[in-house]
Write a structure and sequence with these properties.
The protein is mainly alpha-helical. Helix content is about 65%, strand content about 5%.
Length: about 450
């Protein structure tokens, strides 16, 4: 690239500062795919002969096989994956290789490569989401009868089926799956043919290239085609949200596996020990996922910051997109996989969970609901049951065992059905609205997810 315009060799510091081959080498498959499609368009337009095209295609495929086998030697002097492949191709096949870059710039080339790469990665990420959903559904199904306390403010609130709790994460992950699909739909357009910024006077059939590469449409503005990284931002945003969901699930695992909660036990395969304390069994997987969510957030803000002040059109700042994208993709794929494996092997302590869910104070709201059924205004019912809860707290007597005179003083309407109200199964069966945690609803939702995930 420097032979025509420049007389001096590039500074070694600048070379090392500006190279991207150390990380963008992973685009090689997509770079080769794009180059073959571009070469076919050059053939169709009369800029290549059939023999030249065949030589280019065979040469590129051979280079791809060598890279895949780890036998290709990349050069920092050639900056990036595009120039490394093009230079090697020209070395091998001569002038035909030198014709490949006709009517193309690295600006539209890298924009195309990145979209092709992310299209494949989104498919893999969506698969990872489905695998984790299946693990959660499997754990929920195996423990469908288990109850745990539901929490607000990390204080016990009302009993819920463990399966309902786990299915909440399945719903969250389904939105993550949908967001990833939305990114794929919006980036499904080909920027190749935009040139450096103003396309080319040499006309190529962009729609034919798009069809060969599996894009449904082509970009409509060459300036936007080379400078757009919205699709990368959207992906980083989707992965940051998914990371947040994984972090919340991880926090539940950390809490559930403490001695204080005791609702679950991690398998030995998914636990670590202490270098000092021999009795320890630590939930490091969950903690690492919590921590790595910060990387996903950071990569999103990193690219937002890179893009916020760029003038139109391409600027070298855009090279900073790939490390952020690659890191988030790698982090999210690993987090999804390891969390799925961890959850599939999680052992639920039904005895501890049932004991906690049997806390009669969790059904205080049911007392208020019963008063409402007897035509007591809800705020009045709330106040009356609050007094009973205060009496229970003050005396240490469980609310369902308070003396008859105390019940008669505050809630005489409930004397006859007092004991029956404190049955968590009865309570859950009554919660039959759409989305509520009745056993019938939970069973139906489990069946829905099993069918969808199969």
């Amino acid at each position: 690239m420097r032979h025509g315009r420049f007389e001096e060799s590039i500074s070694t510091l600048l070379r090392d500062y500006g190279e991207s081959i150390s990380f963008d080498w992973r685009l090689y498959r997509h770079d080769i795919r794009g180059s073959v499609a571009h070469a076919r368009a050059l053939l169709k337009a009369g800029f290549l002969t059939q023999a030249e095209f065949s030589s280019i295609e065979q040469g590129l495929n051979a280079i791809g096989e060598e890279i895949a086998a780890g036998k290709f030697e990349f050069s920092v002097d050639l900056e990036d994956i595009h120039m490394n492949i093009e230079k090697e191709l020209t070395n091998r096949i001569g002038d035909a290789g030198a014709k490949l870059h006709t009517a193309r710039s690295r600006n539209d080339q890298v924009a195309t490569d990145l979209r092709l790469y992310l299209r494949d990665e989104i498919t893999a990420l969506q698969s990872g989401v489905r695998t984790l959903q299946a693990a959660l559904v499997g754990l929920a199904s195996a423990n469908e009868e288990v109850l745990i306390p539901g929490y607000t403010h990390l204080q016990r609130a009302q009993p819920v089926p463990l399966a309902h709790h786990l299915l909440a994460y399945v719903e969250m992950l389904n939105r993550d799956h949908g967001r990833l699909g939305d990114v794929a739909l919006r980036m499904d357009e080909l920027p190749l043919g935009s040139g450096a910024l103003a396309a080319s006077t040499l006309f190529l059939d962009r729609e034919a290239i798009a069809k060969e590469l599996g894009f449904s449409r082509v970009t409509q503005n060459s300036l936007d085609g080379v400078s757009d990284r919205d699709f990368a931002l959207e992906l980083l945003s989707a992965l940051a949200i998914a990371g947040m969901h994984l972090s919340r699930l991880s926090e539940d695992v950390v809490l559930w596996t403490t001695t204080e909660f005791g609702f679950a036990r991690l398998s030995d395969r998914h636990s670590t020990g202490s270098s000092l304390m021999p009795q320890k069994k630590n939930p490091d997987i969950a903690e690492l996922t919590r921590g790595k969510t910060g990387r996903l957030y950071g990569n999103l803000f990193r690219l937002l910051t890179v893009l916020k002040g760029l003038p139109m059109a391409y600027n070298r700042d855009l090279q900073e997109d790939k490390e952020a994208v690659f890191d988030s993709v790698d982090t999210a794929r690993m987090a999804l996989a390891v969390t799925a494996e961890m959850m599939a092997a999680l052992v639920i302590n039904q005895e501890a969970a049932t004991k906690a869910a049997s806390d009669p104070s969790l059904l205080a709201t049911d007392l208020a609901d019963e008063l409402v059924r007897k035509n007591v205004p809800f705020r009045t019912a709330h106040d009356l049951v609050g007094k009973l809860a205060a009496e229970s707290s003050k005396t240490g007597i469980p609310i369902d065992q308070l003396p008859v005179e105390v019940i008669r003083e505050h809630c005489p309407q409930l004397l006859d059905e007092w004991k029956a109200i404190f049955d968590p199964i009865r309570s859950l069966k009554a919660r039959a609205a759409i989305g509520a945690p009745s056993p019938a609803n939970v069973s139906a939702r489990l069946a829905h997810w099993k069918k969808l995930l199969s």
